[in-house]
Amino acid sequence: xxxxxxxxxxxxxxxxxxxxxxxxxxxxxxxxxxxxxxxxxxxxxxxxxxxxxxxxxxxxxxxxxxxxxxxxxxxxxxxxxxxxxxxxxxxxxxxxxxxxxxxxxxxxxxxxxxxxxxxxxxxxxxxxxxxxxxxxxxxxxxxxxxxxxxxxxxxxxxxxxxxxxxxxxxxxxxxxxxxxxxxxxxxxxxxxxxxxxxxxxxxxxxxxxxxxxxxxxxxxxxxxxxxxxxxxxxxxxxxxxxxxxxxxxxxxxxxxxxxxxxxxxxxxxxxxxxxxxxxxxxxxxxxxxxxxxxxxxxxxxxxxxxxxxxxxxxxxxxxxxxxxxx
Amino acid sequence: xxxxxxxxxxxxxxxxxxxxxxxxxxxxxxxxxxxxxxxxxxxxxxxxxxxxxxxxxxxxxxxxxxxxxxxxxxxxxxxxxxxxxxxxxxxxxxxxxxxxxxxxxxxxxxxxxxxxxxxxxxxxxxxxxxxxxxxxxxxxxxxxxxxxxxxxxxxxxxxxxxxxxxxxxxxxxxxxxxxxxxxxxxxxxxxxxxxxxxxxxxxxxxxxxxxxxxxxxxxxxxxxxxxxxxxxxxxxxxxxxxxxxxxxxxxxxxxxxxxxxxxxxxxxxxxxxxxxxxxxxx
Lengths: 326, 282
Prior knowledge:
Oligomer: heterodimer
Strand content of chain B: under 5%
Structural class of chain B: mainly alpha
Helix content of chain B: 40-55%
CATH topology of chain A: Rossmann fold
CATH class of chain A: Alpha Beta
Largest sheet of chain A: 10 strands, mixed
Shape of chain B: globular
Structural class of chain A: alpha/beta
Largest sheet of chain B: 2 strands, antiparallel
């Protein structure tokens, strides 16, 4: 856990407060991680954001034999800040490639949806991140999850302090939720990948900016509870250029030249951790979601590149150094 | 005032874009109508429709939820109380202020403070307002809390509310970013300064209207001017202009902006209005 100074405790968000004092202990929950079948995780080299990405993403999705014909698919990128020149946001080309791939595979509808955690002008944010320029008629395909219609969902045997959440209809009604995160380190959670990306499903229009109820309920535990609410998921992680250091916003660019994908989101996140040189067992939300014994490298079937051949250690900020390095 | 009836829902409220009515866009739409002036029968009917939605959706605890399907009163209560009490109903407004004055960020509640003290941390946590009950206080809901209680004090509400206003302003100054503006409220983490945002900088400046001149305030205004030069969102530009106007500085919009939501549209109208109903009792 990060150790904060008093001054930072006062100034920083309740996320910090939660991490140090208020997190609900997962041991108190009745939740037991299920035994998961061995999952395929694809690791494919993609050296740059160029036209080859479209074919690579299509092949990755096809290889997983997802039956999306006639289904409603929602793509959830990670849009955080107004800056097209940094590596904060999921690259728009990855989102467009996924959009095209699922359309080509016969999905009845493909929507792009996001509810940023800090900034209210989601469409303006998407514009600044290059989405309007890359994805034709972007506005027609996009739903701002912060302002979408909502419905309440109870959380059965929560591991966090949450008993229920209001969630957007767009994601509650879809047949497949596709998380499109960026490969990034995270100063409060260690790493932010497909599971953490689901914080953007929680509507700011109800909970505010940031979605601070999740912090008080326990960040890792809330990540797990949100993940469990959406059993039909797929993920493609944008690891072409990721972020190391003080992520998810103030870190620095790190070229990894990879796309990582799979239907078992926990397996994909654990694999991404290993690629970044992070021990997934040390990431609280992965350990809670799956249990230590199911996070070993042998628990997943790697397709494509081997982790050892593509591993590139991401720099970690001080509180995490020496704590989570694999 | 033209066009507010175009996207008004049958229940009298407004959506952010399309769909069901939400409290926030409805309150802003009504404030924008007030700023523009309401004179024709049609304008009066549209305005009254919005009030009807808000009257119908006030909760038993006195607050408003973000939309009728959500069973929890939240920060939007402060926004509704910025409408004239005579229009929304004086008793309704009093009940809303009572709800609001009972809300604080969880970090300033007794349980958390006791926990901190036992852990050796005696730092004060100024009372301010959360977005959602049970969460920490943040800049935007705190700014609206200040405006709402100041309005209530002007109407003759208990002077003990002054203490809350004063403490909430301390909170705002405490959360000021190193660049002079405000972000959502996390100005420094893990030894790094956070960058301010245009919209939060403008909103905080509006809430600090009437604050005595100080180097801090000058830095905040300078940050607002910098943001205004580069900001490309309707919401950001509107709040920056209102924030500077709240301190006597008239600033024009540097570019033509596209309103994406009902809130954007209302905020642009409020920023253009000669008299801002967020600041003065209408």
